[in-house]
Amino acid sequence: MSDYRKASLAAELTNARAALRAAGIETELPRTIDEVDARAREVFAYVLREGITNVVRHSGATRCQVMFGPCSLEIVDNGHGADGAGDGHGLHGLRERMSAIDGELMTESAPGKGFRLKASIR
């Protein structure tokens, strides 16, 4: 398969920083992706892209934090939280991507308490 369609975690981190800044959302982001396991980087790039898109478009957040671990990615915002309507197409697609690599996508939210998105692989 060609590398043309592959996502880059480093590029998505740069894009996330720019998108959050442009939206006026205070950010706490890792400086590098060095600690992220190489086998997780591509799928985490998609998770980061979708997660930040959701923060900017839907959350009403004023603050967003992104944290990397060797086998995890977590995005937390202080927005209004999910409305309980379930996953949209983007989160559903991420769950499928994570499942395909024996990973897991978890969400946590409560009205007025923000949103947490966590992706992890074994």
Give a quick set of tags describing it.
alpha+beta, Heat Shock Protein 90, single chain, 5 strands, globular, 122 residues, 3 helices, 5-stranded mixed β-sheet
Strand line-up in the sheet with most strands? 1-2-3-5-4
Number of strands: 5
Strand content: 15-25%
Q: What oligomeric assembly is this protein in? A: single chain
GO molecular function: kinase activity
Protein name: ATP-binding protein
Keywords: Kinase, Transferase, Two-component regulatory system
Walk me through the structure.
- The structure is a single chain.
- With 122 residues, the protein is of the alpha+beta class.
- It has a single domain (3-121), classed as Heat Shock Protein 90.
- The protein is 37% helix and 25% strand.
- The chain has helices spanning 9-22, 41-59, 89-100; strands at 26-28, 63-69, 72-77, 103-109, 115-121.
- A hairpin with a 2-residue loop joins strand 2 (63-69) and strand 3.
- Helix 2 packs antiparallel against helix 3.
- It is globular and about 35 Å long.
- This is ATP-binding protein.
- GO terms for molecular function: kinase activity.
- It comes from Amycolatopsis alkalitolerans.
Helices and strands in order, then pairings?
Elements: H1 9-22, E1 26-28, H2 41-59, E2 63-69, E3 72-77, H3 89-100, E4 103-109, E5 115-121
Parallel strand pairs: 1-2
Antiparallel strand pairs: 2-3, 3-5, 4-5
Helix pairs in contact: 1-2, 2-3
Protein name: ATP-binding protein
GO molecular function, one term: kinase activity
Keywords: Kinase, Transferase, Two-component regulatory system
